[in-house]
Design goal:
The chain is built from 14 helices and 14 strands. Helix 3 packs across helix 7, helix 7 crosses helix 8 and helix 11 crosses helix 14. About 35% of the residues lie in helices and about 15% in strands. Bound molecules: pyridoxal-5'-phosphate.
Amino acid sequence: MAQLAIHGGPKVRKKKFPAYRFVGEEEKQAAARVIDRGILSGFIGADHANFSGGTEVRVLETEWAKFFKVKHAIAVNSATSAIYCAVGAIGTEPGDEIIVAPYSMACSAVAPLVYGAIPVFADIEKDFFCISAESIEKRITPYTKAIIIVDIFGLPYDVQKINALAKKHKITIIEDAAQAGFAKYKDKYAGTLGDIGIHSLNVHKQIQTGEGGMVVTNDDMLAEKVRLIRNHAESVLDGRGVKSIRELVNMVGFNYRMTEITAAIAREQLRKLPILFKLREKNVAYLAKEFEKIPPLTASKIRQGCTHSYYQQALFYNEEITGISRNLFIEAVKAELTAYELRETEGVKISAGYVKPLYLQPIFQKRIAYGSHGWPWTSREYKGKVSYQKGICPIVELMHEKKLITHELLRPPMTKKDLDDVINAFQKVWENRSQLQ
Ligand SMILES: *Cc1c(COP(=O)(O)O)cnc(C)c1O
């Protein structure tokens, strides 16, 4: 019997895991090219040829659109900005309801609030963790404007069912594919599966520029509105001829512009995406096979017709087999392992559950979005009665409290030895579980 590290025994692994660091010579040269040129941003916030950005930004947009087989790609300074642009562009009105996911990065659920709309949470699928068609349907009311659907952990949503539902009820789909770069449904890329989609270039994503995001859409009007919101809409409307743009609403513009250096780096990162994806896929295939040999664990499956891009791997934990709570089991596994290089302060990248279901967060519980009087929930425009009570999404609560395990220990350049250490940590805790009782 080996003593568990949580009780002071030796760890399975002492060395840190290798950093996910695929920014190198190519990116350095790209950034240097911009510095040599001397123009660090090409944007002008007025009716001008450069309203749509500088050379690198425009070339990036063309290359991105080509790669993802979509008509328009619009570069912004984060995926959060990208979602805010999308919510504005679809013509969201104060008091509208927008159906959102409870298991996601918070911005995909708070985005409606930026335009005075109300987030309504749908429950997730027990196998795939995206919001389910069944739950969405139950949440549709006369006030429903859109769905912000998240391809969580890198797996595309249930396109067949949810697109049909959206069509039937005339609801717009905003696809948050921030975690799903290179994931596909059939031959279409995540981000392009709904009406408008977003990608992230944040430091933690498959490819990155530190901060950055992209909006993708095949709809000319949505694309035009996103470009306006990105760059001070209000200051250019006169010059661009308001009448030429139908349905102009939400024309408070922001500065969500991407710099030339960011765009130049993004172009290099995009070239690396296919290979980085392959390496993740290979690592997960190995891990999934090995995890299956440990009785309380089951690796999550891939939806039919989809390619998963593995931002994280999801596992199911069965407490009945161990007699130990998932949280304690994971605490013991984490004690056996180490952090990633360059992310030392974040600890071991394994998590019991994912984020706390978002509707349980204070912003929703206390309805503190704008001012101190509960706006927009208390607004004259809002006619619905949304609930954020515990229990509204039982599946996400069960996953979060008992069943789901997520981890990031699958990123290249993890070697077979590195992956084996991860497996061995779980195996050791399983074999020595009596020490936890
Ligand atoms: C990372 C992430 C975002 C936000 O991306 P940023 O580029 O950091 O703003 C949005 N949604 C999901 C699901 C994410 O994982």
